Structure to design on (105 residues):
């Protein structure tokens, strides 16, 4: 049997670099399998912008619709608040749909 010396058996504390190297050798730290391609980065960026845009636009659109309905029926601020809530609900649903597709291939 080969006598292998553990680098951490001594009384001294290992340095951070020695710990990192020992962890690398043991397989604790692994490099990513393959780097992300520029096309994949662009796809993810586009989906992120789309998610944010759909959230903001739906809130603003339904806020304006609620404001117009309030001014037409004279029921301020009920349709405005309903528009903000409905726009937020629709916006968040679309936001989560879009962001969940970012990590799918």
């Amino acid at each position: 049997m080969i006598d292998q010396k553990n680098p951490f058996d001594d009384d001294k504390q290992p340095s951070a670099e020695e710990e990192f190297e020992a962890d690398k050798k043991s397989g604790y730290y692994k490099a990513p399998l393959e780097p992300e391609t520029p096309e994949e980065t662009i796809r993810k960026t586009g989906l992120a912008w789309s998610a944010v845009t759909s959230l903001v636009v739906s809130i603003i659109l339904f806020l304006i619709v609620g404001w117009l309905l309030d001014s037409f029926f004279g029921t301020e601020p009920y349709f405005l608040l309903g528009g903000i809530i409905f726009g937020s609900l629709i916006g968040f649903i679309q936001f989560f749909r879009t962001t969940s597709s970012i990590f799918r291939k």
Notes: The two ends are 49 Å apart (CA to CA). Residues 59-105 form one domain.
